[in-house]
Specification:
single chain, 211 residues, alpha/beta, 2 domains, 4-stranded parallel beta sheet, 4 strands, 10% strand
Length: 211
């Protein structure tokens, strides 16, 4: 049994690797003695789509009974019901277990137990029910936020105040300053929690300006 961690953020400006250390610590505390995370699968893509190359690679590379470790269930399950059912089927085809720190009923998958078949079946049923509930909550939260955003934009447009999404210039200036003082991309990620893609974009702009 291998533990495979899946890290996702919605946009390239967000740091998908933010939860890496907390998941390493969680696996060490709750897994079998000496067990470590075998691989990390990291991508910046919306949680509302099932088109996720790294998640599909995780499933393809997994062996039967492996663990899929996520920070929160919504890293996987901010999907419409049909897509969530499809993902569950893909996971079930290899008997992959989803484990998350926010879902205590899932932690048992990290450990070896001697429950009877009946007890194990009950625990699996409870965990599946909790996963479905959290998936439904995650999707509702996504839909609610999208609706509020659309309503806010519509009102701003009607009031003549909508200018579109503006870049965080202060953040960009901070990144540029750190680049100019010799900080590495990894240093800047640790300091600001931003993505390497954003840092690379700012670096490219600096080079263009200096030419």
């Amino acid at each position: 049994m291998f533990i495979r961690a899946y890290l996702r953020a919605s946009t390239k400006e967000q740091n998908a690797e933010r939860a890496r250390e907390s998941l390493i610590q969680f696996a060490a505390q709750h897994g079998q003695h000496g067990q470590r995370i075998a691989a990390f699968y990291i991508e910046n893509v919306s949680g509302a789509t099932l088109h996720r190359p790294e998640l599909m690679r995780l499933i393809a590379e997994s062996g039967e009974g492996d663990i899929v470790l996520v920070e929160q269930i919504d890293r996987l399950a901010r999907l419409k019901q049909g897509d969530w059912d499809t993902l569950k089927q893909k996971l079930a085809s290899k008997r992959l277990a989803i484990v998350s720190p926010e879902l205590p009923t899932s932690w048992l998958a990290l450990q070896q137990h001697n429950e009877t078949d009946f007890t194990g079946t009950i625990l699996q049923a409870v965990n599946a029910m909790m996963l479905d509930m959290l998936a439904a909550v995650a999707r509702k939260d996504y839909d609610d936020r999208r609706r509020r955003q659309s309503q806010g934009i519509a009102k701003a447009k009607s009031d003549g105040k909508y200018n579109g999404r503006q870049p965080d210039l202060k953040r960009h200036q901070h990144i540029a300053s750190l680049l100019k003082t010799g900080h590495s991309y990894s240093d800047i990620q640790d300091i600001l929690g931003c993505s390497r893609h954003l840092i690379a974009t700012i670096s490219k702009n600096i080079c263009s300006t200096d030419q």
